[in-house]
Amino acid sequence: TPIIEIRDLYKIYNPGENEVRALDGVSLQVSQGEFVAIVGHSGSGKSTLMNMIGCLDVPTAGSYRLNGQDVSELSDNELSEIRNREIGFIFQSFNLIKNLNALENVELPLIYRGLPAGRRRELAVSALERVGLAGRMDHRPNQMSGGQQQRVAVARAIAAQPPLILADEPTGNLDTRAGARVFEIIRGLQEEGNTVVLITHDEGLAKKAGRVVRITDGRIDDGQAPGGKEIF
Ligand code: ADP
Ligand code: ADP
């Protein structure tokens, strides 16, 4: 069953004279349990597509169903609720809260989900164990290496066991060794049955995913349509 169903999606910035078609008729399906990398050069439309998939912005036209629900025309509040319920985000820049320790950072999104304190603690501890940080729960971000901070961010993304993990250049700020470790954790998530969408400009990284979707000038070729071309 598809978790992501995008049909003929357009995102047009500055409509009129100086319009930019950041997404120019994108169709994409991602099935439950897939690990898909969306790869493209700078300016190809990756961030724009990531913002659509992540329900951080709405398209100019087209439809998007996430986990069966049409999310292409929701209000900001509704989108925020969908994000919280359906998606675990991993960003390039970790985005941890600096005066909270690792455990508190991971627990934070669970509060918005209305889980009781005991359950929050249980899920957060288990997620931190999963990323190899059982011994760092009371460390604040500035007491950890970049690799450790990103693993806290991974734990935060997976703690509530959301249907979709969305990772935007998750290794972009890490050295080779720490990046490889974070990537292996993300790949492991898929092996455990999670759906993972990775956004990257890094071809080498993308090739390690289960499926590579290339975006060029706001158009994609998802390698599945007959002849290797999307029809739109
Ligand atoms: P990528 O993430 O692959 O670098 P983006 O999605 O950021 O690509 O950008 C795709 C295109 O849309 C680029 O031409 C970029 O200049 C343009 N663009 C992105 N955001 C905006 C915006 N807020 N206003 C106008 N143009 C934008
Ligand atoms: P990782 O492989 O998880 O990135 P490292 O091997 O780079 O971890 O770091 C080893 C130890 O050094 C970490 O446990 C951490 O406590 C400490 N450390 C590394 N970098 C930093 C940093 N920038 N600030 C504070 N502590 C750091």
From TrEMBL:
GO cellular component: membrane protein complex; plasma membrane
SMART domains: AAA
Gene3D superfamilies: P-loop containing nucleotide triphosphate hydrolases
GO molecular function, one term: transmembrane transporter activity
UniProt keyword annotations, A-Z: ATP-binding, Nucleotide-binding, Transport
PANTHER family, per the entry: ABC TRANSPORTER ABCH.1 (PTHR24220:SF86), IMPORT ATP-BINDING PROTEIN (PTHR24220)
Listed name of the protein: ABC transporter ATP-binding protein
